[in-house]
Design goal:
Blueprint lengths: L1 H15 L1 H21 L3 E10 L5 H6 L15 H11 L2 H11 L1 H4 L8 H12 E5 L5 E7 L2 H57 L5 H18 L2 H50 L5 E5 L7 E3 L2 H29 L1
Antiparallel strand pairs: 1-3, 1-4, 1-5, 2-3
Helix pairs in contact: 2-11, 5-7, 5-8, 8-10, 9-10
Amino acid sequence: MNAFLAVNFFISLIRSRLKIISLVGILSIIFGTLLSYILPIEYQSETIILPARHFSVSKMLIEPNMGNQEDYLEIGDDDDLEKLLQIVYSDDLKILLADKLNLWNRWKLEQKQYKLHYLKSKWEHYISFYRTNLGSIRIKVFDRNADTAAIIANSIVQLIDSVQKEMTTERTETALKVIKEEYTNTIARINELEDSLQSLRKLGVYDYEAQVKAISKEYAKVTAKNDLRGKEELDKLYDILKKHGGAYQTWSENLRKYRLKFATIKFKYDQALVDNQYVLPLKYTVQKAIADNKKARPIRWLVVLLCFASSEILILSYIIISSKNKMYE
């Protein structure tokens, strides 16, 4: 019953003020039409990207892991998509794009005190990202020039890998520095051990174990022949081996270990060089942005409808409030 009375009250109120409601509606339609033609025309371009599997270049292409090697052409999963979205929404990407295409000037932000704040505001107006149900990212760009909208959209896709490269540079450079230092130290130690062994070779120590066996055999022969001169020469050689043999064995064993280590550290050094220089693209471009000369904004009928609806709501609200105030007076 109360609802019925309220509806009757509302209808009677509209009838009593029909002229002013109609007048406001007509004026709002005229205003909305004028506004729709005054608002700047904007064109839309869009591009679609898919995430790629996220691995280091060396692990993906160089590391000898036959049978378990990851496929670098594989489409990324949800985790890779989330990582890609983090880059797409990053401020670094916004700044790189603004610097590359001079959006500071195009969007009239050069003289602004809080340039980054206004850049984000303009970005939200002109650029949108959508995660689709198919695991891709749709990038929509609006601009007052159709060609510029396409350029901005394609530039965003190109700069994604630049952001990734900047993100990993500090880490890869640190890793490269550590491995390079170890690589250099390993080479220096190998050269040092080889020089030490070379000095022993000049003294006549070539292969301690083999020489000891050979001297033992020769010593037995000269003893049997009672060759005192030969025995004296063998004693001298044995004294040299006895004096320097321990050092020879130690240095020889260390040299063998460092040569084995060198093969491993050289491989890691090559990997670090590749990772520091290259980054595999994080995305596949499904659709490149193409200039579309059909205007996308403003949608004139929608502008007129919004103006009409908002004005009618305001006038009706005013009429209802004023009527209730009169009732209570």
